[in-house]
Write a structure and sequence with these properties.
Blueprint (H helix, E strand, L loop, with lengths): L2 H20 L5 E2 L5 E2 L5 H4 L21 H8 L2 E3 L12 H13 L4 E7 L6 H21 L7 E7 L10 H7 L1 E8 L4
Parallel strand pairs: 4-5
Antiparallel strand pairs: 1-2, 3-6, 4-6
Length: 186
């Protein structure tokens, strides 16, 4: 192949890549009508009928009652608006699925981890993360999950799931994560 042909092909490839990178992303719609921040994927957000993100699987079928079952089929994370700890209506299907799953497996205990984006002081974000975790805990308890099975913690802005300082990363980092502590096989 001539060097000029190779150079042209490289230029075309770079142009296509640049155009794709500049195309704005729209929010991903989950199976339950929940709008997730752009750039989400199954490995971080779960998959399935409980308001999870639709799409692929994390490596085959998950054993019922396992941590993988919870993450893949139910979904372990919900999102919040900027400076808010109010559970959004589009998160209800996922949280309702978490309630049903936790009622099905009564020996499982969970920890709700509240998170915030990088804006604001450390203290403000720790307090906001705590309020987000408590909002999710309250929702689960109101629907019948024993309060003794749910702990909360705030990580504030200390454990981001998305790198970057743009609105997409901020939206993904404003979340509450339901982590299984005990009672379920990995």
């Amino acid at each position: 192949m001539k060097p000029s042909t190779l150079l042209r092909l490289t230029a075309v490839g770079l142009a296509v890549t640049a155009m794709a990178a500049c195309t704005p992303r729209r929010p991903v719609e989950s199976g339950a009508g929940e709008s997730l921040p752009p750039g989400t994927n199954n490995e971080q957000y779960g998959n399935g009928p409980g308001g999870g993100v639709t799409g692929g699987n994390l490596g085959g079928s998950a054993a019922p009652g396992s941590e993988q079952d919870f993450v893949v089929n139910i979904g372990d994370r919900i999102y919040f608006d900027l400076d808010s700890y109010q559970v959004r209506p589009e998160a209800y299907p996922r949280l309702d699925a978490q309630v049903a799953w936790l009622q099905r497996y009564p020996s499982v205990t969970v920890r709700i981890e509240g998170n915030a984006d990088e804006r604001g002081t450390r203290e403000y974000n720790l307090a906001l993360g705590a309020r987000r975790a408590e909002s999710v805990r309250g929702y689960l308890v109101e629907r019948g999950v024993s309060a003794g099975r749910i702990d909360t913690i705030s990580f504030g802005k200390e454990r981001p799931i998305a790198a970057g300082s743009d609105e997409e990363a901020f939206a993904r980092n404003r979340n509450a994560h339901t982590a299984i502590v005990s009672g379920a096989p990995r």
